[in-house]
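Quick one: structure for this chain?
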Amino acid sequence: MDTRTYTVIFNGVAATVQQDLFAFLAAAGKPFELCELHLSQSNRVGDAQEEELTYLIKTGATTAGSGGTAPTPIPTGITSAAAGFTARVNDTTKASAGTIVTKFINNWNIRGEEIKIWPENLRYWCTGGERMTIELAKTPSVSITISGTAVIREFG
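Got it. Here's what it folds into:
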């Protein structure tokens, strides 16, 4: 089976509310897996600014979120074709409806970068027509400037 790897990024976004940091919708016949997640923030540094923010990985939403943007996934290979899946970032109205399942929950201490690289047998999948979101589930105490990268491998 043919595989291609893509990054989806956002840079320097002011976050003041809970939101879908990332959302991905699998194309028909092209399942994908989440390989890596990188989150960082750039405007709150030092011990006094430390804060823990909860994020969740969910699947099953049937209605897309809104309020963000729809970036083009970036192929990591020189000859990679355009991605079949679609992406959204920073939707302040979160994806909803459907049978939503939380598959992962973690707290990110914003004082440092959050880096998750899942081993191949522990990655989160979506098949054709399914949606995955990476949701900021805790409201920051004050505005933070977040950047993020998700690495997605698509099959088919």
